Amino acid sequence: MTTGTEANGGALLTASGALIEQTSFATIDAEAAPHAYDPDQWTLVRRLIHASGDFDFNGLTCFHPRAVAAGIAALEGGSPILCDVEMIRAGLSRTRMAEFGLAAHQLIDRPEVIAAARAQGTTRAVQAIRFARREGLLDGAVVGVGNAPTALLELIRLIREEDARPALILGMPVGFVSAAESKAALATLDAVPWILVSGRKGGSTLVVAALHALMILAAARRSEHA
């Protein structure tokens, strides 16, 4: 059964679309294995399953204890969203973003980022994170990493060595080189809240789904206090 929180997300859908979404969530609830997620966490995990058709995310998805609350507070406060690739930025609902005055940024295609990566022999993803730090876009941001493990590893380094403080990290890079390892490293952080998908699975679609889930939770909190 769809919760009231999930129903708030349906306001962006037609009646037919909302019915399909509600039926999908009801199917996921019925078919999912038992889990230990709290209701807010399950709202997010269920959307990952819905976006991927993969029930493995019931179990692979891990939460820092402060993650959901930090994400909601950051989005309510209009924090920037920093994306490792354009696919995440393009997938975000403009209507949901506008509700909170949010802006999403993707820096991997910036000429100076590309030039720095070539000059220093690093990936563009690494240089994009460094550029975000220099430009003041990293501290207080919600950072979504769905494709580039090197971006996540650089972000962790900046947190540990340079006291960078994003509001929340969505660590969900997909792949076979350093993806699982970068997320295992993220799981050791306590200073910054995170939500991650363990192992090799991940991707931009999951980061988008997680961000939408957090926006829906934030909208529900706003309605409760209106």
Characterization of the model:
The chain is an alpha/beta fold and about 230 residues long. The chain has one domain: Cobalamin biosynthesis CobH/CbiC, precorrin-8X methylmutase (Rossmann fold, 3-Layer(aba) Sandwich), CATH 3.40.50. About 55% of the residues lie in helices and about 10% in strands. Strands 1-6-5-4-2-3 form a six-stranded mixed sheet, with helices on both faces. Helix 10 (about 150-160) links the parallel strand 4 (about 140-145) and strand 5 (about 170). Helix 7 (about 95-100) crosses helix 12 and helix 9 packs parallel to helix 10 (about 150-160).
The overall strand count is 6
- How confident overall, as mean pLDDT? 93
Stretches where pLDDT is under 50 for at least 5 consecutive residues are 1-10
Number of domains: 1
Helical residues, percent: 55-70%
Q: How many helices?
A: 12
CATH topology annotation: Rossmann fold
Broad shape: globular
Q: Would you identify the CATH H-level superfamily? A: Cobalamin biosynthesis CobH/CbiC, precorrin-8X methylmutase
- What is the first-to-last residue Cα distance? 25 Å
Q: Which series of helices and strands comes N to C?
A: HHHHEHEHHEHHEHEHEH
Architecture per CATH nomenclature, i.e. the level-2 architecture: 3-Layer(aba) Sandwich
**Class of secondary structure makeup:** alpha/beta
Report the β-strand fraction as a percent range: 5-15%
Quickly name the level 1 CATH class.
Alpha Beta
Largest sheet composition: 6 strands, mixed
Rg value: 17 Å
Largest sheet: spatial strand order: 1-6-5-4-2-3
